[in-house]
Amino acid sequence: MDKVLVVFTGGTISCRVQNNVMNATADAPYALISRYEETQGGVVFETASPLTILSENLLPDDWKTMADCIRKRMDGSYSGVIVAHGTDTLAYTACALSFMLSGLRLPVVLL
Fold first, then answer.
1. Using an 8 Å Cβ cutoff, are 89 and 58 in contact?
2. What is the pLDDT of residue 104?
3. What would the pLDDT profile of 27-84 be if each residue is shown by its tens digit?
4. 83, 71 in Cβ contact below 8 A?
5. Quick one: which of 54, 65, 51 has its CA closest to 87?
6. DSSP assignment, residue 46?
7. Active-site residue numbers?
8. C-alpha gyration radius of the chain
9. What is the mean pLDDT of residues 10-37?
10. pTM (two decimals)
11. The pLDDT value given to residue 39
């Protein structure tokens, strides 16, 4: 059975509307994994949440936080990494992580 690390960072995928305001929350993204497990299965997901911030508010130090989180968990047991990010600055984060994780021998997907 494949094991995948899912790194939640905030972004739209972690937002909930409360009092007509959309904010990133720490618990919202786990619904994504629950829905997958209900319909598909066959993959073990381990999660990490080093940040809960909207992607338009990310700074270069946050990219380092993401990369450090991923590197610290690499023990040879994962088939890949999913970074749940958000769309506003995804291209910038993808570029930064491509350099910061260049020695990693696993696929890293940002969504």
1. yes
2. 94
3. 666 667 777 777 777 888 899 989 888 888 899 999 999 999 999 999 999 999 999 8
4. no
5. 54
6. E
7. 12
8. 14
9. 69
10. 0.83
11. 73
- The first and second tokens of residue 30, run together, are 């786990």
For the chain, the farthest-separated pair of C-alpha atoms sits apart, in whole angstroms, at 44
Phi-psi region of 34 (alpha: psi -120 to 50; beta: other; left: phi over 0): alpha
- Give me 75's structure tokens: 């023990």
Residue 31, token pair as written in the block = 């619904």
Q: At residue 54, what are phi and psi to the nearest 5 degrees?
A: -70, 140
On whether the CB atoms of residues 1 and 45 are closer than 8 A, the answer is no
Q: Which amino acid, residue 75? A: D
Name residue 99's amino acid: F
Higher pLDDT, 106 or 31: 106
Residue 81 and residue 3: Cα distance in Å, rounded? 9
